[in-house]
Amino acid sequence: MNDKLIQYGEPAPLRARPRRWWALAMIVLMLDVTSKAAISTLMTYGASIPLTGYFNLVHARNTGAAFSFLANAGGWQRYFFITLAFVVSMWLALELRKQLPTLSAWAYSLILGGALGNAIDRLLRGYVVDYLDFHWSGWHWPAFNVADIGIVCGAVLLVVESLRPTVDASKQQPKNITTAARIESSTRKS
Question: What does the pLDDT average to over 100-126?
Answer without folding.
Answer: 91
